[in-house]
Write a structure and sequence with these properties.
The chain is built from eight helices and five strands; from the N terminus they run αβαβααβαβααβα. Helices cover about 45% and strands about 20% of the residues. Helix 5 (about 110-120) crosses helix 7 (about 145-150). By secondary structure, it is of the alpha/beta class.
Length: about 170
């Protein structure tokens, strides 16, 4: 947890207003751990959650065994499928978590898009799952590394289960 501005956290803790949270969402187990952490955070007060997923069409078509549509047709069907999946991952969050999904078809670096969205949404906290990186080159591809260094708001990097289990904590 890196707290860059404690005022929104204090207002939330005092029950003055919901905490505005951006959750970086994807199909990984670390993202699921971050989502579960958000659910546990809501035990302390209401949250206004924006779950954002940035996807790369070529990867998604390949993963699903689908052929990409002609360029002019866009990716509307794919976006609908991915949005439905993202929304289903948020089912089961407590009732005091209002949430919506923000989906973008990736055109730029994921970190840049998520950071821009977090600023545009004026969130109080950015939550992202993370897993151990190895070597300098691994950090170049790390969303959590970028977010920790560049986000103007408070950031929570939720470690994957293997990392936290090794320390005996969750």
């Amino acid at each position: 947890l890196v707290v860059r501005d404690d005022l929104p956290l204090l207002a939330w803790a005092q029950g003055a207003e919901p905490l505005k949270v951006l959750l970086a969402l994807d199909r990984t187990w670390t993202s699921a751990m971050a989502r579960d952490w958000v659910g546990r955070l809501s035990e302390y007060g209401p949250l206004d959650l924006v779950a954002s997923h940035i996807c790369w069409p070529a990867d998604e078509y390949a993963r699903r065994g689908l052929s990409p549509p002609p360029e002019a047709d866009g990716h509307e069907e794919l976006a609908t499928l991915i949005r439905r999946e993202a929304e289903s991952t948020l089912k089961g969050l407590p009732a005091n978590v209002t949430h919506r999904v923000h989906l973008e078809i990736g055109l730029k670096h994921v970190s840049e898009r998520l950071l821009a969205l977090s600023v545009a949404e004026r969130v109080d906290m950015f939550v992202v799952g993370t897993h151990p990186k190895h070597g300098q080159m691994a950090r170049l591809w790390s969303v959590s590394h970028d977010v920790l260094g560049l986000a103007p708001m408070s950031v929570v990097c939720v470690p994957g289960v293997e990392r936290s289990a090794a320390r005996g904590t969750r």
